[in-house]
Specification:
Layout (H helix, E strand, L loop, with lengths): L1 H27 L7 H22 L10 E7 L3 H22 L2 E9 L5 E9 L3 H5 L4 E8 L8 E12 L14 E6 L15 E6 L4 E5 L5 H32 L10 E6 L5 E4 L5 E2 L2 H5 L4 H10 L9
Parallel strand pairs: 4-9
Antiparallel strand pairs: 1-3, 1-5, 2-3, 4-5, 6-7, 7-8, 9-10, 10-11
């Protein structure tokens, strides 16, 4: 029923656009100067909506229309990497807010001196996964380190993980006998933010070794549900990766090690530039990108992947 409602909404929107296009064409044929300004405004709106719908038409993967889980994990680089992770968190929060998505923080671990070691977000809204899947991989930052007393240039790496949220138990089978559930005391900034009870939950899938945790809810039950939600998403992603690897093996293709090669570089010194190494899309306004202006990179990635397999995209 959910899928049917989404398709009905899509069809209705396309029909509305078609009607507006027909009416605009009829008005243009009148050649009336008194409606020229209104007609130009309508044409500009129609062009913008057509571009947006063209982009959505590229989102035909099995999970593209659904919600997403986004995890950020600091890599090598100590405090600089953890600070870089916090910058990326802010970037994605800004993008989600500007795009009208709802964000819930499921789990977050602060860095020792600054930034964060890791964070997991649940991002809800239409096509959240379809748009965000372009962000999966290693993000590289080059800048003068604010934590280096000698003001030297540092390079930091952070891994971003994007997973589709599992909507039904039919998508992934999870045998609870294979799951180890542990409770622990949630960390915090001190004072009232520190939980005195063991409300945080860590779940481990014993056969695969996959781990998920959640500590941001005061209820142990809610933390358990959220941790299992993340675990199911990681199991689904593992299943998809195994299927892709098998197909690649049959085709004689080599799978790319995404942790070993960055997908995007953010350079703040000696010049400013953000460049995606897969699509070659780049912009000079690094501050704008870090403020959440990601649409250009997302669109370039989607256009690059038009015509490729949609099932696992």
């Amino acid at each position: 029923m959910k899928k049917l409602a989404r398709l009905q909404k899509e069809v209705s929107a396309w029909r509305s656009l078609q009607t507006r296009l027909r009416e605009a064409r009829e008005l243009s044929e009148l050649d009336d100067d008194s409606i020229r300004a209104d007609l130009e405004t309508e044409i500009a709106d129609l062009e913008k909506e057509t571009d947006q719908r063209e982009l959505k038409a590229m989102l035909a993967g099995d999970y593209d229309s659904g919600d997403a889980l986004l995890s950020i994990n600091a890599g090598a680089g100590g405090t600089d990497s953890q600070d870089w992770s916090a910058m990326l968190l802010r970037m994605y929060l800004r993008w989600a807010e500007d795009s009208g998505y709802k964000v819930d923080v499921l789990d977050q671990t602060a860095g020792e001196e600054a930034g964060i070691k890791s964070v997991t977000l649940a991002i809800s809204g239409e096509y959240a996964y379809g748009y965000l899947k372009s962000e999966k991989g290693v993000h590289r930052l080059v800048r003068i380190s604010p934590f280096d007393s000698n003001a030297r240039r540092h390079t930091s790496f952070t891994q971003v993980e994007i997973l589709p949220q599992v909507e039904s138990d039919e998508e992934i089978e999870l045998n609870m006998n294979d799951v180890k559930i542990e409770s622990f005391r949630a960390g915090g900034a001190g004072g009232q933010n520190v939980q005195k009870n063991d409300t945080a939950i860590r779940v481990t899938h014993i056969p695969t070794g996959l781990v998920a945790s959640c500590q941001n809810e005061r209820s142990q039950t809610q933390n358990r549900e959220n941790a299992l939600r993340v675990l199911k998403a990681r199991l689904l992603e593992l299943k998809r990766e195994q299927e892709e690897a098998e197909i690649a093996k049959l085709k004689g293709q080599l799978m790319k090690n995404e942790w070993g090669s960055q997908i995007r570089s953010y350079v703040l010194h000696p010049y400013q530039m953000v460049k995606d190494h897969r699509t070659e899309h780049e912009v000079g306004n690094a501050a704008g990108v870090l403020d959440g202006d990601l649409d250009g990179f997302i669109q370039a990635y989607l256009r690059m992947n038009v015509g490729k397999s949609t099932g696992a995209s």
